[in-house]
Amino acid sequence: MKVGLLECDHVREDLMHIAGDYRQMFPALFSQVAPEWEFVFYDVCNGVFPYSVHECDLYISTGSKFSVYDQEEWIFRLKDFVNEVYKSGKKYAGICFGHQMLSEALGGKVEKGSPGWCVGVHSFSLIQKTEWMKPELDNFNLLMMCQDQVVKMPPNSIVLARTADCPVGMFQVGSNMLGIQAHPEFPKIYNQALMELRAERIGQVKVDAGIASLSLPTDELTIATWIKNFAAL
């Protein structure tokens, strides 16, 4: 399967030594469950887009320091591209910013979440089971690093999972579009580094709790397997 990674941001230079950029993190994750996947990289935040939606079988959209409602040319262009993916029937998996982009591009709405920042390990509760959720998990833990949240769902969508602070933790639009408000690709050490760098914005109490939560187990390999299964449908 040919997988297009839509890079909506890049890791800071001073943090690259931890796990590289997104183009290293995502292949590192999926190589454990889908070693046959061939990744192609599109630096969309710098204006590099696929010439055609048919270049890849699956598109994965990364996280970003930007918000999907920011008035940036590349963000408008990405919304148009996500619409093209939806209409084409190609598969899409949005991670954090990519999850929010899925909502905004197809008629939903994203705002700053009322709980504020979600950081560290969060527990997701499954609301709706699907055929591609194998192995089965009713609850799973994933790393989060977000302030924005989906507050209005696009048409033809269904919420699949939620957390205590994030009502739309995972959702699906139609049969080919998936959004996950979490970071299965992040190593815990990278999540911690981001929390420490953003402590003033996030708040030290929340950062301390987020760092303490890193002792909990996480289920990124199961979620990566789910994405693999979803893409294969």
Structure description:
With 233 residues, the protein is α/β, with parallel strands linked by helices. The protein is built from eight helices and eleven strands. The strands form two sheets. It has a nine-stranded mixed beta sheet with strand order 2-1-3-4-11-10-9-6-7, sandwiched between helices. Strands 5-8 form a two-stranded antiparallel ribbon. Helix 3 links the parallel strand 3 and strand 4. Helix 3 crosses helix 4. The longest helix has 16 residues, at 73-88. It is globular, with a radius of gyration of 16 Å. The two termini are 12 Å apart. The mean pLDDT is 97.
Topology:
Elements: E1 2-6, H1 16-19, H2 22-30, E2 38-42, E3 58-61, H3 73-88, E4 91-95, H4 97-105, E5 109-112, E6 118-126, E7 139-146, E8 148-152, E9 157-162, E10 170-173, E11 177-180, H5 188-197, H6 199-202, H7 204-213, H8 220-232
Parallel strand pairs: 1-2, 1-3, 3-4, 4-11
Antiparallel strand pairs: 5-8, 6-7, 6-9, 9-10, 10-11
